[in-house]
Amino acid sequence: MTSTLEPLHASDPALLGGYRLLGRLGEGGQGTVYLAEGGSGARVAIKTLNQEAMSDPGMRRRFVREAGAARQVASFCTAAVLAADVDAHPPFIVSEYVAGPTLHQRIRSGGPMSGGDLSRLAVATVTALAAVHEAGIVHRDLKPGNVILGEGGARVIDFGIAQVSGGAGTVTTSVIGTPAFMAPEQIAEGRATALSDVFAWGALVAFAATGASPFDGPTVPNVLHRVINDEPDLSRVPHPLRSLVAAALAKDPADRPASKDVLVSLLGRGSVPDDGGDAPPPVAPGVPPTRVEPAVRPRAAERVPDDHRIPAAWRKVRADEPGRTVLGERYEPPAGCAAALVGLISVMLVISVIVAYASTT
After folding, report:
1. Which domain-ending residue is among 96, 126, 148?
2. Number of structural domains, the chain?
3. Which contacts (CB < 8 Å, 24+ apart) does range 276-284 have?
4. Residue 313 has pLDDT above 60, yes or no
5. Which sequence positions are flagged as catalytic?
6. What is the chain's mean pLDDT, rounded?
7. Strand partners, 95
8. Which residue stretches of the chain are H helix?
C-alpha cells in the first residue's frame, strides 16, 4: 500500500462499512483500494470490487475466497484483515493499513538491498509464509508488488488468488500468477502447494538482492521457459543466503525446504554478512539448522516487468524447443510483527527440542 494517495472520485462513496473514505490508494481491473478512517481515528485500507467484477462469478468467488483466506491467517508479518462484507454493494475487505512503498518500488528507486536490510526482508517474508501455510493456505502470488515495506519492516499482502489447500496440500486450478515468481509446477501443470510459495520466496529474495529476477528475459514465454528449464542466476546473492535461496528455487518441489524450515535455518545461521545491524537471534542449543547445499550455475539476467498474468495457453514451455514462442535505510521489525515472530519461532523451537530429545531416548 504505497503512501501515494489520490483524491476520491465523484462516484466514490463517502462512507463504507462505517469507515470514512479519505482517498484512493490504487485501482485495478477488479476494483479500488481506499484509505479510510474509523471512529477511533485509526486508518485502514479497504479493498472493493467494481461493478464489472461483481457481475463476473469467477471474480466474485475469488474475492470471497480472499476474504476467507486472509482472516484465517495469524498476523505474522502480514497486513491483518479487520473486517469484511462480501454481500455488501460493493463487497469490501477492511485490512490494516501499512504505509510505505512496495518492495518493487523500493528496488526500482533505490537499487538492490544488502546486509541487515536484506536479512530482515528474507526473515519477515518467510515468517509471513509460515503463518499462511500454518493456516492451510497457499498464497500463489508472492512477488515484490505484494510486499509492503512499512516503517518497521516488510509485510506480505494480497490474498486475492490464495486458496485453501486440499487434503494433500495441493491447489489445482487455472494458471494465475506472475511469471518470474511462479514455480515450474504452477506454469506447467497449474498445480500449487506451499512449496510453490517457497519457490516464489527464493525468487523474491534474489530480486531484492540483485535488482532483477533470477529468471528475467525479454518476453514472457522466455521467462516461463527459463523458470522451467534453466538454473537461476544467483551470482550476486550473498553467502550464506545464496544456498538457501538456491534450495528454495529447486525445480522439483520435493527438493525445496518448507517455509518453517527456511525460517529456522535463517535464524539459526544468519542469512547475510553483518553490516552493523541487529543480528538474527540464535536457535536453541542442540537444534541443528537445516542443511542446504545445492549447486548453482549463474546465468545472465535481463529485465522483464513483474506484473504479467499467465494465460493458460502458455503452460507448455519445453526444454527441447528453447526458441519457441508459445501461444495458448534499514527496517526494524514493528512491535506486532516482532512479537508474532518471537511467538512463532518459540513454538517451532520447542517442537524441535522435543523431537530431538525423543530421538535420543
Report:
1. 96
2. 2
3. 276/115, 276/116, 277/115, 277/116, 277/117, 277/119, 277/120, 277/330, 278/116, 278/332, 280/119, 280/123, 281/345, 283/349, 283/352, 284/349, 284/352, 284/353
4. no
5. 141
6. 76
7. 45, 81
8. 51-54, 57-72, 103-110, 115-134, 184-189, 194-210, 220-229, 241-248, 259-269, 335-360
DSSP state, 161? Answer: T
Summarize pLDDT for 166-199 with one digit per residue, the tens: 444 444 444 456 899 999 999 999 889 999 999 9
Which residue is listed with cell 470514512? Answer: 20
3-state secondary structure 64-127: HHHHHHHHHCCCCCECCEEEEECCCCCCEEEEECCCCCEHHHHHHHHCCCCHHHHHHHHHHHHH
- What cell numbers appear for 321 in the block? 524447443
My answer on whether 64 and 129 are in the same domain is no
* pTM score of the predicted model: 0.70
Reported as a single tens digit per residue, the pLDDT across 227-238 is 999 999 899 999
Sign of CA dihedral 278, 1, 164, 181: negative
The residue range of the domain holding 82 is 15-96
